[in-house]
């Protein structure tokens, strides 16, 4: 009998906690230290628990999150914009933090969603291994799919620690990405209004 009975590729099967902790011990040795010295003994367990927090988004569904919508907003039709949502993610190339701000806007058609859900939506995708472009696009696409609004705008402004603390070492650089759909994609004046609001 094969090791993986459901034909799931080995690269997709979740290791046990013990295997994950062993991998951390390997990386500690790779860094040049002794995983058995007192100060590092509990580190593998802490790191795996930290990974559960950093990457909690894999276990969360954006569709479930955006299910509860409502219509009664007394005919309100203009944009809803959440500015300065704290963004904490990890770059998929180096697994180091991406820290910044996300701004999410949509132009409702008939339904709106609880504003906290927009923050949670950012978190679902941020708590995965990401590029900033993918993160921006995934948030926009999930909102479009769930609310069928007249348009969506997602902007992210973030610093990548893979560029600030290593590599090119440019602490002052932030990366700005944006994705517009619907009326926001069609109307440059609307895009300008958003940039001004930010
Ligand atoms: N487009 C994009 N690139 C990213 C993102 N996060 C990190 N990167 C880049 O991914 C690239 C990986 O390049 P490689 O040459 O394979 O890796 P590297 O040798 O570590 O690159 P350096 O960072 O230049 O030292 C780097 O240029 C990173 O700056 C992101 O969110 N979007
Ligand atoms: Zn990186």
Automatic annotation (TrEMBL):
Pathway of action: Cofactor biosynthesis; 7,8-dihydroneopterin triphosphate biosynthesis; 7,8-dihydroneopterin triphosphate from GTP: step 1/1
Record-linked Pfam families: GTP_cyclohydroI
Keywords: GTP-binding, Hydrolase, Metal-binding, Nucleotide-binding, One-carbon metabolism, Zinc
Keyword Zinc: yes
Entry EC number(s): 3.5.4.16
Reaction(s) catalysed (UniProt annotation): GTP + H2O = 7,8-dihydroneopterin 3'-triphosphate + formate + H(+)
Superkingdom of origin: Bacteria
Gene3D superfamilies: 1.10.286.10, 3.30.1130.10
Domain GTP cyclohydrolase I: 21-196
GO biological process: one-carbon metabolic process; tetrahydrobiopterin biosynthetic process; tetrahydrofolate biosynthetic process
A GO cellular component annotation in the UniProt record: cytoplasm
Entry's Gene Ontology molecular function annotations: GTP binding; GTP cyclohydrolase I activity; zinc ion binding
Positions with a binding annotation for Zn(2+): 91, 94, 162
InterPro entries according to UniProt: GTP-CH-I_C/QueF (IPR043133), GTP-CH-I_N (IPR043134), GTP_CycHdrlase_I (IPR001474), GTP_CycHdrlase_I_CS (IPR018234), GTP_CycHdrlase_I_dom (IPR020602)
Record bears the keyword Lyase: no
Description of how the protein assembles with itself and partners: Toroid-shaped homodecamer, composed of two pentamers of five dimers. Homopolymer.
Family, per entry: Belongs to the GTP cyclohydrolase I family.
Protein name (Swiss-Prot/TrEMBL): GTP cyclohydrolase 1
Organism: Oceanococcus atlanticus
Gene giving rise to this polypeptide: folE
